[in-house]
Amino acid sequence: MKSNSSNPPQIDTQISKIACPDCDLIQTIPPLSKNQIAHCLRCHATLFKNQENSINRSLAFAITGLILFIISNLFPLLSLKALGLVQEGTLLTAALSLFNEGQPLLSLLMLLTTIIFPATTLIGTIYILLQVKTNNINRYTAPIFRFLRSTDAWGMLEILMLAILVTLVKLGDIADVILGTSLYAFCLLILSLTLLSHSLNPHDVWNKLRTKNRCG
Q1: Structure letter (DSSP) for residue 112
Q2: How far, CA to CA in Å, does 165 sit from each of 95, 160, 162, 177?
Q3: Residue 42 phi, psi (nearest 5)
Q4: The pLDDT of residue 63 is above 90
Q5: Tally of helices (H runs) and strands (E runs) in the chain
Q6: What does the alpha-carbon distance between residue 14 and residue 34 come to, in Å, rounded to a whole number?
Q7: What is the largest CA-CA distance in the chain?
Q8: Coil, helix or strand for 37?
């Protein structure tokens, strides 16, 4: 097993064996120091990160992300001004417009990937982290967390951001594009979700669940 540091005092990871997420090789995790990372012996993928204060930092990013998510859905993302007319649009109205244009499947996909799944991820993550932080774990904690982990890939805000940038380039010559408050909140939301994904160590949550099960 490889790690990225050597001398600091070791901390028990509370995990004896783990399957590599990339190649499925089952390996033993040794005690790790703070901020030390264990890598797969075969494919060198990351197996375990012993991150310091992961729960508190992740909770802060999740709460920040939820606030930004609410703001990004309350105000228009963009406003187009042409021939004296101004047209505004939010994430929800964009999905509804696709439905009205005869694209129900595309409308549903946009609704799921830009509103429902991100909201579920943020609210569910806050719920789980608060339970772990307060040691108020119940029988629903593990299934909910497992569901959140399985739906991570369905949040596609980055793709929508790319589509918005393309729209800005294409419509910039034929209409005045006014950037809305929600667009700035949307950009910060993407940053918050990225930081949340980087800071949240799922093994910290699973370790708490194992400890609770042993004690309960």
Answers
A1: I
A2: 18, 9, 5, 11
A3: -95, -50
A4: yes
A5: 8, 8
A6: 14
A7: 69
A8: strand
Give the DSSP per-residue string, 65-104: HHHHHHHHHHS-SEEEEETTEEEEE-HHHHHHHHHHTT-H
Per the CB < 8 A criterion, the answer to whether 94 and 101 are in contact is no
Three-class DSSP category at 19 = strand
> Apex CA 207: angle with CA 201 and CA 209, to 5°?
115
The three-class DSSP label of residue 29 is coil
Tell me the one-letter amino acid at 145. Answer: F
Q: Which two tokens stand for residue 215?
A: 């004690």
Identity of the residue numbered 181: T
Residues contacting residue 61 through CB under 8 Å, at least 6 positions apart: 192, 193, 195, 196, 199, 200
Q: 83 vs 96, which has greater pLDDT?
A: 96
Residue 85 structure tokens: 């007319």
Residue 85, H or E segment: strand 85-89
25: Cβ contacts below 8 Å, ≥ 6 apart? 19, 40, 41, 42, 43
Contact 115, 73 (CB under 8 A): yes
213's tokens: 């099960």
Round to whole Å and give the CA distance between 59 and 69: 15
Going by C-alpha positions, the residue among 131, 106, 99 that lies closest to residue 204 is 131
Q: Which tens digit of pLDDT belongs to each residue from 12-43?
A: 445 567 788 788 888 887 777 777 788 888 89
Residues 6+ apart with CB under 8 A from 103: none
